């Protein structure tokens, strides 16, 4: 049995708990949250014995083979430091991004390396069969040379204003998922980015928070990527990506709640898209943790590298600067 400790019992923490509980060969040995009551409630609900509010406390309660960090991005660095100190050599899975800028990402990876810990950063598109199949069409050359990629990220439901104001920067929160996916599929990175956007709510506007944005990314090998992002896809979680190449195209479309089509004289009706990310990426979230288990057992490799994590955040950061300064930003 691989013993995993869950750190963070919020939105992603609940998803990760469900995934881990369904994985053969895995046991959730510890629940850790700075909010001890919340950690205690989740541990009781899932029959987990050890509850702690810090890594040091958790490691004193029993052995841990790997840590699953599902806390807010700003806390990842100090948690990685604590794991390297109190549990050297153990696996670290973390929600994206490792940190919100490339310098801190490098620091976090260095701290982990010094402790003999490996960081496995989540980017669930890498584990989703639809995204993987479309990327394979690119990497096998089935599409010829890819010149254009069009991405749509429609979030649903629209998060509360407080969330958006506190840490819901559209370039930092949404864009990294598709940047990582497209860069990896094209085996390429950005040479420049232009970004613009708007705020649909006066409070967001006043705080300078965008809930709709568009990015145009020029790739080093010549392809052009457009990314349209919105916080309010009122019709369901809308995640699309289409590659256009000299020999064909590959599209990631949305799975629906069911595939029936009801036709009448008024037109045709189909099911809604998935409600949100927990439903849409249910299988991928599980596959990520299954792969993490393999990494801990020395039977698998993690597909997302430190360099890729840094590149994605540097382009997300450049997009924000492009919007603020109203110009194309070249990427070093
Ligand atoms: N892959 C995805 O689609 C996806 C979706 C949403 C969020 N995320 C990522 O997941 C991470 C967590 O986001 P969330 O929305 O679940 O957060 P959340 O605010 O819902 O939950 C965070 C939990 O962490 C706890 N916490 C905070 N600091 C802590 C610390 N230092 N030690 C222990 N516990 C601590 C809080 O008490 C809370 O219970 C973020 O990095 C975010 O970017 C990824």
Automatic annotation (TrEMBL):
Residues 3-119 form the Gfo/Idh/MocA-like oxidoreductase N-terminal domain. Residues 131-250 form the GFO/IDH/MocA-like oxidoreductase domain. InterPro entries: Gfo/Idh/MocA-like_OxRdtase_N (IPR000683), GFO_IDH_MocA-like_dom (IPR055170), NAD(P)-bd_dom_sf (IPR036291). The keyword Oxidoreductase applies. One of its GO terms (biological process) is NADPH regeneration. GO terms for cellular component: cytoplasm. GO terms for molecular function: nucleotide binding; oxidoreductase activity. It holds the Pfam family GFO_IDH_MocA. Keywords: Oxidoreductase. PANTHER family: BINDING ROSSMANN FOLD OXIDOREDUCTASE, PUTATIVE (AFU_ORTHOLOGUE AFUA_2G10240)-RELATED, NAD(P)-BINDING ROSSMANN-FOLD SUPERFAMILY PROTEIN-RELATED. Belongs to the Gfo/Idh/MocA family. This is Inositol 2-dehydrogenase. It comes from Triparma columacea.
